[in-house]
Each structure stands twice: as structure tokens, then as C-alpha cells.
Amino acid sequence: MTSENKETVQYITAITTLVTGIVMCFLSFFLNTYHIESGVLMYFGETLIFCAGVFGINLYVKNQVFEAESRLNKKMDQRFKEEQSVVSGST
After folding, report:
1. What domain count does the chain have?
2. 63 lies in which domain range?
3. pTM more than 0.70
């Protein structure tokens, strides 16, 4: 499974879970004479935590990888320029 497919599955799962939580809250509210059961609220809270985890952790990891790549590229460019100056200065 490629990383793009993995991310797609994660996002679809998170959105589906969130939608089920919202639907359960609405059904509980309207079917129980405008009262939401505590179990439904707990489930909805867990779906929010799950979605935040999927979206937040994924974005955090992508950001950290991007920063690491940019630092590495910057150091490699500096080293390449140093080597070029040494080579051009010695000839």
C-alpha cells in the first residue's frame, strides 16, 4: 500500500467516523425527546479525538519531514559551495 493510499484510507475512515458520530447525536436528540444519552456523547467525543489525531498527527509528521529535508538540502548546498570554492581556488 502506497503512502497516498494509506492517507486516503485514513481520511475516509476519520470522516466516516465523524459522520456516524454526528448522525448518532442527531438521532439520539430527536428520538429521545430532545435528550442526548451520555454514551452517545462519549462516542462523539471519541470520534472527535480520533479525527483530530488522524488529521493533526499526519500534518505534524509531514511538517517535520519537510523541515528536515529543507535543513538537509541547505547543508548540502553549503557543503557543495565550499567544495566548489576549494576546487576553483586550487586550480
Report:
1. 1
2. 3-90
3. no
